[in-house]
């Protein structure tokens, strides 16, 4: 069920993105674009390159698809959860770090200059967003006194963490955008390197990688709900319904921002990540720690 919901959310994201793209270009439609693109890729013949490391190449693309499903395994849907380990937040962080290897392997395995440059561009972005993201994940864990996702939800009874952890929430969303190779963090796929890690991907391989790119924002949006938005808490509707409503709202914001924020050069974002985001989120963690210690 979690996998089905994740796929549905990803389809909502790709459809909304296509509609916004069509409006930006001043044309109608966009609603059927995702299906037509998928059908075209499924009919396309697979290309290959000379001396490609096919195993690593395919592992990178398929891993993008599988990783998002591993993320949502620990997200509570109201009272129901697929897995509730004591270190659910660490589990999420492990999967998002795994994306570094997956994108780089996709670039490396093709044995192509454009793909490899795209892979290294992503690593440069990862160096800038990953540490702030880790500290953003620490804030809810400190407040709840636990690394378990269910415990974090329970600790928000009466007041959502986003209210007094806005910096951590914003940095978390930046991290989600980053490991999704999304919006401003898509220079790894930019036109100036002929598509980067996507340069040599075709047919079903390209479809699987692109599907992973839309599954990750959906998974990240869903994980923000138990971390910062009170999980399934809310009036009238059952808990699982509130989780979906909040997830769709966060996902819609991410898709909208993708069209509003330009690509960020990796070297410039490294300055922002290390000089702005990291100090800001560390200060947020210290504030949360002081409040917890003082019993506030």
Reconstruct the topology from this structure.
Elements: H1 2-24, H2 33-43, H3 54-72, H4 88-109, H5 113-144, H6 149-154, H7 161-164, H8 166-179, H9 203-228, H10 239-260, H11 266-294
Helix pairs in contact: 1-9, 1-10, 2-9, 3-4, 3-9, 4-5, 5-8, 5-11, 8-9, 9-10
How many helix segments? 11
Q: In percent, how much strand structure appears in the residues?
A: under 5%
SS content category: mainly alpha
* N to C succession of SSEs: HHHHHHHHHHH
Computed Rg: 19 Å
Average pLDDT, rounded to a whole number, is 85
Number of strands: 0
Helical content band: over 70%
> In this structure, how is the largest beta sheet organized?
none
**Which regions have little confidence, pLDDT < 50, spanning 5+ residues?**
none
What shape does the CA trace take? globular
Give an account of the 3D structure:
The protein has 296 residues and is mainly α. 70% of the residues lie in helices and 0% in strands. It contains eleven helices and no strands. The protein has helices at residues 2-24, 33-43, 54-72, 88-109, 113-144, 149-154, 161-164, 166-179, 203-228, 239-260, 266-294. It is globular, with a radius of gyration of 19 Å. The model has no long low-confidence stretch (mean pLDDT 85).
Which features does this protein show?
296 residues, mainly alpha, 70% helix
Briefly say what this structure is:
This protein has eleven helices and no strands. With 296 residues, it is mainly alpha-helical.
């Amino acid at each position: 069920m979690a996998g089905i919901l994740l796929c549905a959310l990803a389809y909502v994201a790709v459809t909304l993105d296509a509609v916004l793209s069509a409006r930006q270009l001043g044309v109608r439609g966009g609603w059927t674009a995702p299906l037509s693109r998928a059908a075209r890729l499924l009919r396309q013949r697979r290309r290959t390159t000379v001396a490609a490391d096919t195993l690593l190449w395919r592992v990178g693309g398929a891993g993008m698809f599988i990783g998002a499903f591993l993320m949502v395994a620990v997200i509570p849907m109201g009272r129901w959860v697929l897995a509730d380990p004591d270190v659910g937040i660490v589990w999420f962080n492990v999967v998002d770090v795994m994306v570094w290897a997956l994108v780089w392997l996709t670039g490396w395995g093709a044995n192509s200059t454009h793909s490899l440059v795209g892979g290294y561009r992503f690593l440069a972005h990862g160096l800038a967003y990953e540490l702030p993201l880790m500290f953003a994940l620490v804030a809810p864990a400190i407040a709840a006194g636990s690394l378990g996702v269910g415990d974090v939800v329970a600790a928000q009874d009466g007041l959502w963490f986003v209210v007094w952890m806005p910096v951590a929430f914003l940095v978390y969303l930046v991290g989600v955008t980053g490991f999704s190779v999304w919006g401003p963090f898509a220079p790894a796929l930019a036109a100036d390197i002929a598509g980067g890690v996507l340069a040599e991907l075709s047919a079903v391989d390209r479809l699987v990688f692109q599907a992973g790119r839309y599954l990750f924002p959906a998974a990240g949006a869903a994980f923000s709900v138990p971390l910062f938005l009170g999980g399934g808490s809310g009036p009238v509707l059952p808990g699982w319904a509130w989780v979906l409503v909040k997830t769709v709202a966060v996902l819609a914001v991410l898709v909208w921002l993708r069209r509003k924020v330009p690509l960020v050069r990796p070297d410039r974002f490294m300055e922002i990540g290390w000089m702005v985001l990291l100090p800001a989120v560390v200060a947020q963690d210290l504030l949360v720690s002081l409040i917890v210690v003082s019993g506030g």
